[in-house]
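Figure 2 data, in text form.
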Amino acid sequence: MNNALHRAEQHQDSYGSICNIYVTNLDDDDIWSTEHLNELLSIFKRFPSAVFAWTKGYFCHSGGNPYPPLIVSQDRVNNWPGTFGAEQKLIGFPTNTTATVHLKSFKSFICDDTSINRFPISSTIPSNDSFDTYRKIALEKYCDIVPIPRHKWLNPQTYTEEDIAFVIFTSSNFFHTRATATRDTWLSRITNYYFLSATPYLYLPVTIVPGAGEDKLSNMKKLFYGLQIIYQQQMNLSVDQRQKWFYIAGCDTFILPHHLIKRLDGLDYRKPTRVGGHWGYCECPGPKGATFRAEFPSGGAGFFFSIRLLEIMQPHLTNYIENVWPRTSELSDVALACLATQLGIKLTKRVGFWAHPPEFTLAENKRRKFHKESEPNDFHYIQPDEMYALDEFYVNQHIDRLINDEEE
């Protein structure tokens, strides 16, 4: 990929002394590329008032411009005195007039610029077919529900996405709906993951758990037998290729991995550790008919455990499901917590784990509690249409924050 800054400078030079100031929309064939995003950010940083950003090149014209095109001297572009978003006085138009333009500051693309008529009349795309209309209908409602962070984005400090294996238990009943929506959205940007089910499916990379079944009780077998399959696969890898953490969730959980991974900051994967946030108490079966109390992290909100804990639990998984846990209980999250507690591993609690959809979470917890942590890890009970909408919403939110950081 050619250097974005060099291409922008060359294209501006070819226009001589004038260039239109505007911000383009992005092509969608490369929008998830890290290289492409870095290119875009480099342009913002070098030309804080003029962004020439397109997958196939960088242009100086008014197509797709939400603002009227402004003609300024090349010198003014290269030596712009303010920062992107400041109100600037532009002097030196061919007519020797002075104009004021309000350039965008750090805003939420979804929540702050809510017009559905941003495109010029000459545009070939009718406004009722535009992303603005879709955004208005499907996405804008989240602006009044979920936190909208305006502060600096900080990367996870200890682990990266490649250090995590996401373990998703699903069923053939959901292959065409929830599991496909998960595959198409947040999971499409994940390196290491497992779909646990008893049935193969051409369009999903399912890890088959033989004989598990596909009813609700099957979750026990899928998780306990599936973890043994995963453990063997991990042991077949070299040590430096193994994942350090495993995150368990269902196929109706929408996950924000770039937030979630921060919950592991400061934790050592070489120690037996389990991590969750939406938790409760349960009664666990003990020896000789006794019971004991344990804390369990909700499987709906998801939970982590380290590879060291998997190593410790692995020899006990088969016996626990076949001889200890009641066969009429499908509570796999509780069962795994009981086994971990029996092995002496306490729950490490972290913020941001939510076990319901955003709207329900706001109603149940009220705004102060829900918004106290501005970076949620996940939401549960998400239907496929909402899975796609949330993914679109949070991708745009994350890009807003990345762009803002480059400007600071």
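Caption note: DSSP finds twelve helices and 15 strands in the chain.
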